[in-house]
Amino acid sequence: MSEDRLLDGRVMLRQPDAGYRAAIDPVFLAASISAKGGDLVLDAGCGVGAAALCLASRIDGLQVAGIDSQADLIKLAEEGAGLSRLLDRARFIAADILSPPELGGPFDHVMANPPYLAAGTAIPPPDPAKRQANVEGAAKLADWVAFCLNQVESGGTVTFIHRFDRQAEVIAALEKGAGDLKVFPLWPKRAGEGAKRVIVQGVKGAAAGVDILDGLVLHEENGGFTPAAQAVLRAAKTLPL
Fold it and tell me: Mapping DSSP to helix (H, G, I), strand (E, B) and coil, where does residue 210 land?
């Protein structure tokens, strides 16, 4: 087991040494949420709690909840909340989104970092925990979107970080209950080229519409993070959605 730092040490994570490990995606997901103190935010598929804890550490008075079907990851999320001194503002629930318990909503914002791969589209990782985190099981992408829309209040946001090449699926599913969609690509080295990840955000009950934003370039030519990416990853800056 390892202890890892996010946001320049403001957040401490407990993670397995092998198998599923949070990377930068949940940090960018948290940075896309325009919450304020007093809001209630749900992190669906929270894993070890990276996105929830990053968001809670950034906004005073915010309450976050996380749900994940892997009880061992939920235990690590709780430990991370303790290490990050956020136990009073973060709670985590081991449950399946297809049959969730009462979670205490509706929520002002719901965010999700679901499995990126549809079943049967790639060779699954051999590690069971990593496979469950990366490859869709009984819950498909449409189920994740429906769950998030059901949990958020009218006028609240639903935000996904997902594979760039599946953005059309995310948009189509969100349009069944949300509008004013923002699409924010994360470009590897040059704007407009080679994106692997995209953030898609919609407002429940808003008028239809999709706005493709410029996005953010992650890396310099030498492989280091750009100043804009560093501002999110180290200084807890928000993304301009």
Answer: strand
Residues facing 91 on adjacent strands: 65
One DSSP character per residue, 119-170 reads: TTSSPPPSSHHHHHHHB--SS-HHHHHHHHHHHEEEEEEEEEEEEGGGHHHH
d(CA 85, CA 170): 34
pTM reported for the whole predicted model: 0.93
Q: Which 3 state secondary structure label does DSSP give 99?
A: coil
Sign (positive or negative) of CA dihedral 179, 46, 113, 140: negative
CB atoms within 10 A of CB 10: 17
Find out whether 32 and 51 touch, Cβ atoms under 8 Å: no
8 Å CB contact between 44 and 152 = no
Q: What is the pLDDT of residues 109-130, one digit of tens each?
A: 999 999 887 766 655 655 555 5
| pLDDT tens digit sequence for 74-89 | 999 999 999 999 999 9
pLDDT > 90: percent of the chain = 84
Residue type, 124: P
CA angle in degrees (0–180, nearest 5) for 22-26-29: 170
The helix/strand/coil state of 72 is: helix
Cα torsion 89, 95, 22, 13: sign: positive
Amino acid at 168: A
Let me know: does 47 contact 73? Beta carbons within 8 Å.
Answer: yes
Between CA 150 and CA 89 the distance in angstroms is: 23
Six token digits for residue 67: 């749900």
